């Protein structure tokens, strides 16, 4: 059997990036809303004396910081001299790692730490942060650190790389 690489275009990469992003965002949003609604008419009260609530805040902050550090480290490993196809693969990996790091504390908080509605503040903040990470062509182009030749290739949208 012949070893074939998938044909990829800049537009296909962009669509794939957005699809993965929205799938992760939708999953996190659905779980957050579903479990928040499942708590019913429970009172919403923030208790900073509750160690579990403080732990959930720490998890959220650490996740945002760790996702940024990991993304930057993985992005910085993309060699300026790599071809566009390799850069695209590495950036896709960096984005998926970033999204996964942000997803984990949401599920930990919801499934393990959340005895009341106030705990859902952190998943909502993470969701808002995820919204700010929505991929667009300009941001992807900037993250790819393209050479002049690669920018020309990138701007040809539907041309196979």
Largest sheet: none
Stretches with pLDDT under 50, minimum 5 residues: none
Number-wise, the strands total 0
Share in helix: 55-70%
Radius of gyration: 19 Å
Domain count: the total is: 1
> Element order, helices and strands?
HHHHHH
Number of helical runs?
A: 6
What would you call the shape?
A: elongated
Mean pLDDT: 89
What do you see in this structure?
The chain is mainly alpha-helical. The protein has one domain (10-33, 50-144). It is 70% helix and 0% strand. It has 6 helices and no strands. It has helices at 10-38, 51-76, 84-113, 121-132, 137-144, 148-154.
Briefly say what this structure is.
The chain is mainly α and 161 residues long. The chain contains six helices and no strands.
Keyword list:
161 residues, mainly alpha, 70% helix
Secondary structure: elements and pairs:
Blueprint: H1 10-38, H2 51-76, H3 84-113, H4 121-132, H5 137-144, H6 148-154
Transmembrane segments: 20-37, 52-74, 95-113, 119-136
Keywords: Membrane, Transmembrane, Transmembrane helix
């Amino acid at each position: 059997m012949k070893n074939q690489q998938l044909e990829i275009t800049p537009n296909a990469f962009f669509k794939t990036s957005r699809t993965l992003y929205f799938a992760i965002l939708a999953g996190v949003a659905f779980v957050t809303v579903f479990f928040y609604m499942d708590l019913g008419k429970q009172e919403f009260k923030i208790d900073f004396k509750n160690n579990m609530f403080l732990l959930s805040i720490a998890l959220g902050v650490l996740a945002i910081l760790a996702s940024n550090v990991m993304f930057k480290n993985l992005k910085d490993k993309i060699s300026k001299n790599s071809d566009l196809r390799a850069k695209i693969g590495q950036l896709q990996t960096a984005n998926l790692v970033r999204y996964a790091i942000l997803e984990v504390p949401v599920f930990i908080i919801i499934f393990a730490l959340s005895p009341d509605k106030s705990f859902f503040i952190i998943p909502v903040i993470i969701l808002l942060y995820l919204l700010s990470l929505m991929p667009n062509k300009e941001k992807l182009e900037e993250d790819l650190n393209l050479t002049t030749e690669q920018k020309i290739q990138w701007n040809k949208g539907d041309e196979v790389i």
